[in-house]
Design brief:
With 89 residues, the protein is mainly α. Helix content is 75%, strand content 4%. It has a single domain, classed as Beta-Lactamase (2-Layer Sandwich), CATH 3.30.450.60. It is built from five helices and two strands. Strand 1 and strand 2 (45-46) form a beta hairpin.
Length: 89
């Protein structure tokens, strides 16, 4: 069962990031990674193991950010990136 979940996560992330699943890409888009994991399971219960469905749901949620909140989303993302780089130094 664990192998199935991990394969689903890897395949879904490959689809979301267009086969660019390198460490830098994953850390820059950690919210998408966590959202993918959230779509696969909830409170330890497996919900979905189809990578196509996971990738579709994650891409839909990322595109749902309203225009008014998009600037707040961008500010939070840039603050997160700055904090990440200050910790890594």
């Amino acid at each position: 069962m664990l192998v199935s979940v991990l394969n689903c996560l890897f395949d879904a992330l490959n689809q979301i990031f267009r086969k660019n699943t390198e460490k830098k890409s994953l850390t820059e888009n950690l919210d998408s990674v966590f959202l993918s994991i959230d779509e696969i399971c909830d409170n330890g219960i497996l919900l979905e193991t189809d990578p196509n469905q996971i990738a579709q749901r994650v891409s839909l949620r990322e595109n749902e950010v309203p225009l008014g909140e998009q600037t707040v989303f961008d500010v939070v993302k840039s603050a997160r990136d700055q904090l990440k780089w200050s910790i890594l130094r």
